[in-house]
Amino acid sequence: MGGKGIAASLGMILTINPWLGIGLTGVVVLIAALTGYVSLGSITVSFLYPICIAVLLRGNAHYAAYIVFSILQALLSLFCHRKNILRLIHHEENKLDFKKISRLSKKK
């Protein structure tokens, strides 16, 4: 997870529920590996986060606050990713180049 506040969001999620943070990181890694788009993973997790909070924290004394906060966080993330979303729609988003990454790691 990387730019646009996603790493900071991960830190907050890990504080609230470490297993959720690990699981959502796995989703980002899986989507990035399958599609080559890290931003698609971040966008997907932005949608999943409030849903996961709603399911996992049901019955918590501060449930409503967690829900509101997770929705606001998701909306902010989606707003910050609006250019990535447009590039994905227009098939102009940059993909991870695993071959280039492999070549760079071999040069060290």
Q: Describe it for me?
A:
By secondary structure, the chain is mostly helical. 78% of the residues lie in helices and 0% in strands. It contains six helices and no strands. α2 packs antiparallel against α3 (38-56) and α3 runs antiparallel to α4 (63-80). It is globular. The mean pLDDT is 88.
Topology:
Blueprint: H1 6-16, H2 18-35, H3 38-56, H4 63-80, H5 82-89, H6 98-107
Helix pairs in contact: 1-2, 2-3, 3-4
Give the gist of this structure.
This protein is an all-alpha fold.
Characteristics:
108 residues, mainly alpha, 6 helices, 78% helix, 0% strand, globular
As a percent range, the share of strand residues is under 5%
What is the mean predicted local confidence, pLDDT? 88
Shape: globular
Distance N to C terminus? 24 Å
Share of residues in helices: over 70%
Given the structure, what is the number of helices? 6
Radius of gyration: 15 Å
Structural class: mainly alpha
